[in-house]
Amino acid sequence: MSYIGHEDAWQAWRRALGGERMHHAWILSGRRGVGKSAFAMAAARELVGEPGVPQPADHPDILYLSHPAKNDQEARKQAEGKPFELARNIKIEQIRRLQQRLTTRPTLGARRAVIIDPADDMETPTANALLKSLEEPPQGTYFLLIAHRIGRLLPTIRSRCRVLAFPRVPDTEMEAVLAREAPAASAEMRAAAIAAASGSPGAAIDFVQLDLGKIHALMRQIAGEGDPDFALRGRLAAAMGTRPDRKRQLAAIELARSVVAARMPSVAPRDIPAMTGIHADLVRLAAQAPTANFDAGLLVMEIGTLLAGLAPSRAPANG
């Protein structure tokens, strides 16, 4: 499957692959949902493949690390093929087990690929453990670090990696993706999904699947009218649900950011600092939400309060 916006990344990767000295560590940087994981797997297969050597679907020389199951109970669910909850971070124990594996030679050829997805979900001790392998990579081992927020990676890790950037997908191409992947969605729903996704086809598809159209309408109403009696915020909380999962919470924050961004071009100059501050607060929430244990109800109220701050003041003018 080909992904929109991957052409430059493939050209850079294949030039390096065909060169004399392939860099040993790469960061795949871009918004969540632009296809970085799929690129990493396809690129890893090109890296480890050798002429005349059969390449199995489950390749022993492609090592993939991501969030593990949250605990032993969730791990049992995973083993039984049942839905299970993930841990919030990649664990240092995973990196240590990986490093033990790297003391052996690749199984089928001369190269091995390590994919960490997402590398920006490592806490500092885990990242420092990985850094040791990046500083002294085993012969034939190459790292592909997927980063949705590259700024969260340690500078020492970034300095040892070459970056492949995955750009935003234009709205016209996003519309084509949604028409193909979610043909039953209304034109209004697709437009809202595109606005919220900010150039990420995967995020746009998630938006449609999560059915956030009503939430988007309420957010726009709060931003336009305010919410002096908290009635709209109450409706917003009801639309979110009593126990929204983390994916729905993250989508709601991104949706609120899109509402703020949509109002930016028409805002009066005197209101720009306040709007910028509101957007910055939503960016902070988006950065904290993947790992913080937010109370879902309080999170929704905070989002609603920030959006209410966009509404024009209804106080009478002096004079």
Automatic annotation (TrEMBL):
<feature type="domain" description="AAA+ ATPase">
    <location>
        <begin position="22"/>
        <end position="170"/>
    </location>
</feature>
<protein>
    <submittedName>
        <fullName>DNA polymerase III subunit delta</fullName>
    </submittedName>
</protein>
<dbReference type="Pfam" id="PF13177">
    <property type="entry name" value="DNA_pol3_delta2"/>
</dbReference>
<dbReference type="InterPro" id="IPR027417">
    <property type="entry name" value="P-loop_NTPase"/>
</dbReference>
<dbReference type="GO" id="GO:0009360">
    <property type="term" value="C:DNA polymerase III complex"/>
</dbReference>
<dbReference type="GO" id="GO:0006261">
    <property type="term" value="P:DNA-templated DNA replication"/>
</dbReference>
<dbReference type="InterPro" id="IPR050238">
    <property type="entry name" value="DNA_Rep/Repair_Clamp_Loader"/>
</dbReference>
<dbReference type="InterPro" id="IPR003593">
    <property type="entry name" value="AAA+_ATPase"/>
</dbReference>
